[in-house]
Amino acid sequence: MNELDREIVVIAHDIRSTYNVGSLLRTAEGLAVKHIYFTGYTPYPKAEHDIRLPHIANKLDKQIHKSALDAEKLVNWSQTDDVSKLIDQLKADGFTLVALEQSTDSIRLPEYKPPLKIAILLGREVEGIEPDLIKKCDLTLEIPMFGQKESYNVVQATAICLYHCRFFGLS
User: What is the rounded (10 degree) CA torsion for 43, 44, 48, 54?
Assistant: First the structure.
């Protein structure tokens, strides 16, 4: 098995910052994420049949582009409001659903051997993932912290997790 045999998708739920969205797209492109799903109020790049008002879609697209640097044109992405339905569909398609979040029953990322099909759920920058969505996931992963801060930025955490999931346990 090589590093591209893993099918990895990301669900970006209720991410507020357009700059985080752009950086997430760029990170996903570099680590061969198959698809990013933007859910809830997460801003997303301009789409061909965009239902948003043109001035809003253009403004968000311009902000996302500042950190995505055209990765928004290279990564497959879609937007949906119903994250629960999406989670159910991904599970039906054989994905293991993983919440990237700190919790009392989370698994430390270095101890986790990712499956061949994994969907990583990201949540709000400050509050994290809502408890009802964590319950819908198969497990919760946590990145150990060794300094004084309690967490990483959502994109930094995603990059660490994606790298681990792309390369861990390939021998």
Answer: 30
Read off the pTM. Answer: 0.95
The total of other beta-carbon atoms located within 10 Å of residue 57's CB is 17
Longest dimension (CA), the chain: 50
Helix crossing, 18-30 with 54-68: angle to 10°?
A: 50
In whole angstroms, how far apart are CA 153 and each of 20, 78, 82, 116, 169? 9, 23, 24, 26, 26
Instruction: List all residues 6 or more positions away from 43 whose beta carbon is below 8 Å from its beta carbon.
Output: 15, 16, 18, 21, 60, 63, 64
Could you report the per-residue pLDDT of 94-148, keeping only the tens digit for each?
999 999 999 999 999 999 999 999 999 999 998 999 999 999 999 999 999 999 9
Residue with tokens 């997460």: 42
List of residues 6+ apart from 125 with CB closer than 8 A:
15, 16, 17, 20, 153, 154
pLDDT at 4: 83
